[in-house]
Structures are given as structure tokens and as C-alpha cells.
Amino acid sequence: MKEFALIFRVENNPGASLSPAEMQQRMTTWMNWMGGIAAKDRLVSNGNRLGVKGSKWVGANGVVSDGPYTEVKEFINGYVIVRGETPEEAAEMAKGCPILFAPGGSVEVRPLVAPDNAE
To answer: Which of 111, 97, 113, 112 is nearest to 8 (CA)?
Structure first.
């Protein structure tokens, strides 16, 4: 079985103006989705959310700036790692991701590549 990263992208921060009750409901939805994947023994890592505040961008020649840039219209919000036989199976798992209900939400499915496998 192969491992895949499900990378969550969103146009803006969908949790920025949620009440505590709305935030709790959103977290419950995420936990239920990941729990369903885990129940099928397909969840490798529940990953992490990725913050924006305090982020840095590092470029060539030692250039460091605050990032991600404010012009960026889409942010990587987080990720999980799942296992499946094919990219299509991983994409099926991604179809239930709560980020898809956020404005501009999407899930990128990427195979993890072992150092001895250049695919």
C-alpha cells in the first residue's frame, strides 16, 4: 500500500470569525471525517494545521521575509497522511474533507515518495 498526503488549501482563513460553538462544530466535523478514515485503517498521520502568523519565506542568497505573502489568494491550511492502493482511492477519501465546504476549499492529493523510489 502507498501513502498519500492530503493537502488542504483554502482561499482565506475560514475559521477567522467563528464563534466558539461554531469552531467546536467544525472540529467535530473534521474529527468525524478523520475518524472514518482511521476506522478503515487508512489514516497514517492526522497531520497538523499550518499557521500563517509568524511564517517566514526563505529564498536564495539568504533572503528572508514574512510569508506567506498577502497577495497569495490561497493558503495551505494543513495536511493528513493516508494510505491507499491508488491515487484514486486517496482522492475518494479526500471527497469527504470538510475543507471542501469552505469558500475556495480544495484538497491536493500527493503520493509520498521514498528516497529509493523516484516516481
So the answer is: 97
Please spell the DSSP secondary structure of 71-97, one letter per residue.
Answer: T-S-EEEEEEEEEESSHHHHHHHHTT-
Q: CB-based contacts of 90: which residues, under 8 Å, 6+ apart?
A: 4, 6, 82, 84, 109
pTM for the structure as a whole: 0.80
Please state the separation of Cα 119 from the chain's center in Å. 22
47-51 CB contacts, 8 Å cutoff, 24+ apart: 47/5, 47/78, 47/79, 47/80, 47/81, 48/78, 48/79, 49/77, 49/78, 50/75, 50/76, 50/77, 50/78, 50/79
Which residue is listed with cell 478523520?
34
C-alpha cell at 15: 475559521
C-alpha cell at 113: 515518495
* Residue 48 in this model has a pLDDT that exceeds 90: no
Domains of the chain: 2-111 (3.30.70.1060)
Q: Tell me, what's the pLDDT at 62?
A: 84
